[in-house]
Structure formats: structure tokens, C-alpha cells
Amino acid sequence: MKKSLLLSIIAFTFTLFVNAQTKDTIIKKPVTFPKNYTSQLDVVYTKVKDWEGKADLYLAINEPQPTPVIINIHGGGWKSGSKDTQGGFSPFFKAGFAVANMEYRMSDQAKAPAAIEDTRCMLVYLIQNAKILNIDTNKIIIMGGSAGGHLALMGGLLGNDHRFDRNCLGTENIKVAAIIDKYGIMDVWDWTYGPDHKSSSPAAWLGENVKNEAFIKSVSPITYVTKNSPPIFIVHGDADPTVPYRQSVELYKKLQELGVKSEFFTVSGGLHGKFEKDKNTEINVAILKFIANLEPFK
What we know:
This protein is an alpha/beta fold. It has helices spanning 2-24, 90-94, 114-128, 130-133, 147-157, 188-193, 201-206, 213-218, 245-258, 277-292; strands at residues 38-48, 51-59, 67-73, 98-102, 135-145, 178-182, 232-237, 262-267. It has ten helices and eight strands. Strands 1-2-4-3-5-6-7-8 form an eight-stranded mixed beta sheet, with helices on both faces. The chain is globular, with a radius of gyration of 20 Å. The termini are far apart.
């Protein structure tokens, strides 16, 4: 009995060690940026009790004119992921964009709507520090994949609705020039209880509000879509086994019905992200073309 218990403890300890090692060595993507750019890593953009929200900023601070900026938000079902795993910013650097690659509170740290609050605080931080960072507040693009797509939608669609701004109050005229939604969740209730429900992530994130339909509606991007919503570019694989493709179809349909400038890029046979390199290149070209045709960028 004692031997069995000892073996169990050893196995458990080894698992923790492996997980810790994996977390520390988790495919960090080095970010290469142009010579006229500078990096500010682990900048604290918000603080909640003992938790510090950090972002990596890549800036062209010596440019004569303020630059556009992309906020990038990682996915992971609000329960995993890291800004350190994010990359592929080169096309945006070449187009003259600064990048703010952010992290946010995971569901084991704080339940919904914490991640939305952090996203809003990232927006506010950039607006409040625009002059120092040499960024143009009329040219803020917010982008994310999966749960990050959900947060990008929420951060941008809320506009001057301050319901999730309790940690960063006092800033008006919060707006984005466009939202780039990559296979994001637009209806949290549907993802939690709909016919294609397959993930435990929403329940873990919603916590005690897991059956609170009104609350879940309040953290669902589809709730905030109006005719005045910012332009939205949607990317989704039509074979996605994680976030139903039809969610993006329904979002795009509503945007079109309301006359919101929007574009839908379907990846034929595409799963949940992890598209082929050539397809990612094609997506980035389409995104930059979409942005270039927006009023602030003409």
C-alpha cells in the first residue's frame, strides 16, 4: 500500500515537473522587427490586485507621423495560451503598423468578464499613451483568434459602452478602426449549449454564471452588433471542429443586413486555425487590403 502511494506521488510530481517544463519551453515565437522599430517587452498595461496585465509593444517611435497599431490577442479558450506563442507580425510591420501583443487573465485566475475587462484596458492604455508611443488613435485595429477573436470582437464592438471598464475608467471616445476576427466565438450561449457544443472552455470561464442567460448574452459579441459597428474582417475554416463555422456565417449575415462594412474569408477544409503557410499569407494580404480601403487609411 505504502509502495503504491509512493509511486503515485512520484508519478504526480513528475507530471507537474513535465508540465512546468512544457510551459516554460512552450514554442515561444521570436518576433523579428525592422531596424526602425523598437520593442518594449512585458509592459504593464493594467493591474488588478496582485495580477499584472502585460503586453509586448513593437513601435516605430521615430516616425515623423503617428503610426497605426494592431492589438493582437491570443486564443486558448480563455484558459490557456500566451502572448509568447504569437508571431507572424512581419506583414504588419512592413505595412507600417505598431503591434501590441497582449496577455489577459485566464479562467483559472479570474472568471468572465475578466478577460474582456483586460482587453478594454489594453485599448485604454494605448489611447492614453498614444503620444508617447507615437500611435494614431484613429487607426487602432484589434485582432485575435478563437477566444482571442471573441475578445477582439468584444473590445471593439463595445465602443463607449463602459460596462466592462471598471478597471480603466475615465477614458471616452474608445473606438477601433476595424476588428479582425479569426474563428472567434460570437455567441457564447450557443457555444456552451448549442448543437455543436464540444468544449469545456465556456463553462470554466463562465463559472457561477454558467446558466445565467442574461450574463452570457452580455459577454457575447453578437449582442453588440449594430449598424454603427466598426468594420469587421472574419476568417474561419469551414471544417472547424472547435468553434462552429456557422457562428461566423451568422455574424457575417447580421453585419451585411445592417450594412456594416465586412468581409468573410472562408478557408475551405480549414480546421481551427493552423492553416497552411500559403493560406496564412493569402489571409494577411486580404486583411491588409481590407484595412487599406477603410476611411482612416485612405
